[in-house]
């Protein structure tokens, strides 16, 4: 599968932009963050740790270009520096601990919302102007406009604190030992319900809106008329003829929205005290643990770019016209 | 344009959205009359439930939630609206230039637009905000605007490209009009519906981003806004102790702005893109065509 060179150029520039931000922002800020970080390390501040922090944040006698080259070569070796809060753990170790939970939350929420949002959008477009459309479509636009913080707090208060249906913190019951057994998976599932339900409304709203408008334009295409002319049933035409092609803009949108989904997951994890990247980022930002904050931005940028690349590849698989063109 | 306003008026959703947003703005404007108590003053015991005296109860610090809610609307709405306008201005100008000039200008601007578009905004915002320490409203505004203009720029660019080769633009070029005049006098007025959508969408985004940043504690905690109210309520574990009014008031405020703006945006979308319409006119048309389809069957 060939991906247009232009797209790769965009991803390269985006990644470079994130790196340059990480490199310059601490050097531009008034008052070096280095002293604060060394103070925070306290008795753990070994000469090695101090040296590593100084080199990373530009408090060394070296021309700026040389510092940048050192920074890049460090990144190429997956060296993101040491965490100030969790020293002597490295940033990579700190992030690796929590990345899995965020990936789990985000993927579950996306799959769930895709199923719900795409079906709602397809049906709304199919029965355009009907009662279903008149209610669901404006409602989706409203869902997009309500910040995840609000939805999270409302869910936490209603289902967590008042009704006590779901647990209000952690990724699984802390009394359990992680293992490949039913109890553990059940606990993980149970703890993920509220966070996933908090992340989903925004996604469902976006998917419904995109799906509806792209489905409406697809419904005018010849191949949909062709399907009808063959005498296929409504459901068959709707799902295997129209919806399949109307999915393409939804996929593009999904890749672009991933950044916003990460933003939502940060807030959701904080509200529900869920041990993912967001909670790590929050504790890091409270503790002014700059290396972790920087590593976070790089990791999330990489994830978003990876997803975009994946969508570029999927595009060819879903749309036969593009597959033909490239072949 | 006249047609647009008529359509807007006929749409119940848009009117409802307009009323909600206008009511909140009026509330913010008349804060000194509606809530004469100083939002920072201690007026009662900690976490009192709503009473006649304190409509929305009190916070952990014994401050009046109602008066914080009313006064907090001011910075929240002001920053949201100003940021929305700023985002739209940036996006529109970049989109216009890329779309009109084409060639290398377009290639560069489009590359930057797409690159900023795929960088996750909130982590970037957190990086910037955490190095800046607690940030005031103007800094929050700048940070949000500089990371979120690409959506508008992309829409504006493709519209401009469609307009670039229309007769009236070619005519203006042949008469010898300077580029800036063609862009801002000939092309820009045609983009008004698009800019409307862009403004409302950007305000929604700005309010979401602002709330998120302030909830995470990057706002000035002494400045009463809906976002910092949420932050303070969270810090005093209002939800766990059952003080729902402390969280509920700012949350309702933010949700209401979102609701109002979303209803407006939905209508703007339908005006700019008639294909998406689902109002009374469309249901009437669908009913008629269904009847027409049934008639020949009945005749048979």
Automatic annotation (TrEMBL), chain A:
ABC transmembrane type-1 domain mapped to chain residues: 99-311
BP-aspect Gene Ontology terms: transmembrane transport
Protein's UniProt keywords contain Transport: yes
Membrane topology note: Multi-pass membrane protein
InterPro entries according to UniProt: MetI-like, MetI-like_sf
Ranges annotated as spanning the membrane: 7-25, 101-126, 138-162, 182-205, 254-277, 297-318
Principal subcellular localization: membrane
Location in the cell: Cell membrane
Record key words, sorted: Membrane, Transmembrane, Transmembrane helix, Transport
GO cellular component: plasma membrane
Family: Belongs to the binding-protein-dependent transport system permease family.
Protein name: Peptide/nickel transport system permease protein
Species: Mesorhizobium sangaii
UniProtKB/TrEMBL annotation, chain B:
Gene Ontology cellular-component annotations: plasma membrane
GO-annotated biological processes: protein transport
Localization per Swiss-Prot or TrEMBL: Cell membrane
Ranges where the ABC transmembrane type-1 domain occurs: 73-265
Membrane topology: Multi-pass membrane protein
InterPro entries: BP-dependent_transpt_permease, MetI-like, MetI-like_sf, OppC_N
Parts of the chain that traverse the membrane: 14-35, 77-102, 122-149, 183-208, 247-268
Record keywords, A-Z: Cell membrane, Membrane, Peptide transport, Protein transport, Transmembrane, Transmembrane helix, Transport
GO molecular function, one term: dipeptide transmembrane transporter activity
Pfam family, one: OppC_N
Domain of life where this protein originates: Bacteria
Family note: Belongs to the binding-protein-dependent transport system permease family.
UniProt protein name: Peptide/nickel transport system permease protein
